[in-house]
Design brief:
Shape of chain B: globular
Radius of gyration of chain A: 21 Å
Number of helices of chain A: 4
Distance between the termini of chain B: 90 Å
Number of helices of chain B: 4
CATH class of one domain in chain B: Mainly Beta
Number of domains of chain A: 2
Oligomer: heterodimer
Largest sheet of chain B: 9 strands, mixed, barrel
Largest sheet of chain A: 9 strands, mixed, barrel
Strand content of chain B: 15-25%
Strand order of the largest sheet of chain B: 1-2-3-4-5-6-9-10-11
Number of strands of chain A: 11
CATH architecture of one domain in chain B: Beta Barrel
Order of helices and strands of chain B: HEHEEEEEEEEEEHH
Chain lengths: 242, 286
């Protein structure tokens, strides 16, 4: 009986240690390895093209003023959106307001994802010519200059997806026709990959925008991208306000 | 091996088996997708605003011709009122998802997941027990036949044997050869479904569409209200339709929203960024 008791303890120790050793505890981020690049669970680098299979009229063209369908806006947000003036935005150098971190993955664009260094993943867009930087092994930034793309921290999830949290944003537009988000908005994104049945890869980006000032509830959308062989279709074009 | 050692090894195996009763898990059920998932309709997915809205659907020529022949008045026909929509409607319709599992009472492994029905959507059962898809001659149903398997923390389901129906309520057609690969990604209280829909008859390329849901503390119903038919004044002698090039609504997306006709009728090239170069900078807006 004493032998069985000791054996049980040894086995229990082994069994309970397993999930942690493997970093498999659900909901826990993967154990930090030497570098984010080395510990990447999936390879999302490369050229990706947006496939606009939904919200076409809100994404591929500039929706008309007042067409805010599906966005859970507050009354204050609606009042602001009703004053949208793209000419004034362009004149004041704010033509990139619809290309901020809360909306950039909705822009019909090509994206180039590449490691900047061992712990920083860069995401560039050709449309709007924006650059995002995902900082691994880095705490969120609570101070500092606010920018269109804000400050993004990233971590690999054990579900083989990438989680990105962005703050320190400048105020911008969720949609090109002036649907606002405030500088206090927080953006959480999940990057997941899937194979295409006939070959090729799909990148799925789930975006959650929290903005108590302008949104009645978190704004949740998901966007689809297809991987391209190279950057031959890369076509940098500046932001447009209209 | 000494007698004491072999005794310890034997006891260890016994202990491992004993503990396994409480701790071992089968390869499935990596994450829990069961529960009530509320719809967050922050994207315009249902596409039932205007009759000819096939934006974002890569229809081929045959699919386009068929889609433009469709009249929504068909739904007034008694025999079509309760026809419902194929499984694609999971990522198209405005409703949430009620998902539950059936488990083997002895082994505890998941035999199937079921996504509950709604009035116009049949329940979808995802078989997790390794059974094969039936013969291609087997019966086709509204929900089709679906098998699933875990790939890491992602549930991947594959649906075949659907009846011919619609990709979107506006009449974009689907054939009975259409298939759907559905991936379930759970991130905290967010569940995102990625559907890759293939149809050799009506699609020029796979249609990739996704939708997110949020875990709800309020239980959703596993069934919808019953569908009841009634006479709506339709002529029983004809099925409402439009002849080729006679659909009166073909330009409504253009006049109302400035969407070019090629995009409204679902030409595949309109799904990609470069198409924007073909859009007039100031499309007519009424």
């Amino acid at each position: 009986m004493r032998v069985f008791f000791i054996a049980t303890l040894v086995t229990l120790e082994f069994v309970t240690a397993l999930p942690y050793a493997a970093g498999q505890d659900r909901g826990m981020p993967a154990k930090a390895a030497a570098t984010a690049k080395a510990s990447a669970l999936v390879d999302i680098s490369g050229y990706w093209v947006a496939v606009v299979t939904k919200d076409w009229r809100f994404r591929m063209i500039t929706p008309r003023k007042g067409d805010y369908q599906s966005v859970p806006m507050t009354e204050q947000a609606r009042t602001i959106a009703d004053t949208w003036d793209p000419v004034a935005d362009a004149a004041s150098g704010d033509q990139c307001k619809a290309y901020g971190a809360a909306a950039i993955m909705r822009v019909p664009a090509r994206f180039h994802i590449a490691w900047q260094d061992d712990n920083t993943l860069g995401v560039e867009s050709d449309s709007g010519m924006q650059t995002r930087l995902f900082h691994f092994n880095s705490p969120p930034l609570s101070t500092g200059e606010r920018t269109r793309q804000g400050y993004s921290t990233a971590q690999w999830q054990t579900s083989a997806s990438l989680k990105v949290a962005t703050t320190n944003l400048r105020a911008g537009y969720l949609r090109k026709n002036g649907v606002p988000y405030s500088e206090n908005a927080a953006v959480t994104e999940y990057f997941d990959m899937a194979p295409l049945p006939s070959g090729g890869q799909v990148l799925l980006v789930t975006t959650i925008v929290d903005d108590p000032q302008y949104l009645q509830q978190p704004f949740i959308v998901s966007s689809e991208f297809k991987k391209e062989a190279d950057g031959s279709k890369w076509d940098p074009t500046p932001c447009t306000a209209k | 091996m000494s007698r004491a050692n072999s005794k310890f090894v034997g006891a260890t195996i016994l202990a491992a088996a004993f503990l396994c009763l409480f701790t071992c898990r089968t390869a499935d059920a990596q994450v829990d997708i069961t529960g009530s998932w509320a719809a967050r309709n922050h994207e315009f997915l249902t596409g039932d605003g205007l009759p000819v809205d096939f934006t974002g659907i890569p229809l081929n020529e045959e699919g386009r011709i068929r889609a433009l022949s469709y009249s929504e008045s068909q739904l007034a026909m008694v025999e079509r009122q309760c026809q419902g929509w194929p499984a694609f409607y999971l990522v198209q319709g405005p409703f949430g998802l009620k998902i539950w599992s059936e488990t083997d009472p002895l082994k505890g492994n998941v035999i199937s997941y079921t996504i509950g029905a709604w009035e116009d959507r049949a329940p979808l059962t995802i078989w997790m027990d390794g059974r094969p898809h039936p013969s291609k001659y087997a019966e086709h149903t509204r929900a089709g036949f679906t098998t699933g398997a875990w790939e890491g923390n992602t549930l991947v389901a594959y649906t075949t044997h659907m009846k011919a129906g619609f990709l979107r309520k506006t009449g974009a057609p689907s054939s009975d050869e259409a298939t759907m690969t559905l991936r379930f990604y759970r991130h905290g209280d967010i569940l995102t479904l990625l559907a890759i829909i293939e149809d050799p008859i009506y699609l020029a390329e796979p249609w990739i569409v996704s939708r997110s849901f949020q875990l709800s503390a309020t239980p959703l119903s596993p069934i919808g209200p019953p569908c009841l038919t009634t006479y709506e004044g339709s002529n029983a002698q004809t099925a409402p339709h439009y002849l080729p090039e006679k659909n009166p609504f073909v330009d409504e997306m253009t006049t109302k929203y400035g969407v070019p006709r090629d995009a409204a009728i679902g030409k595949p090239e309109t799904l990609y960024p470069e198409y924007r170069k073909n859009i007039p900078p100031a499309a007519p807006v009424r």
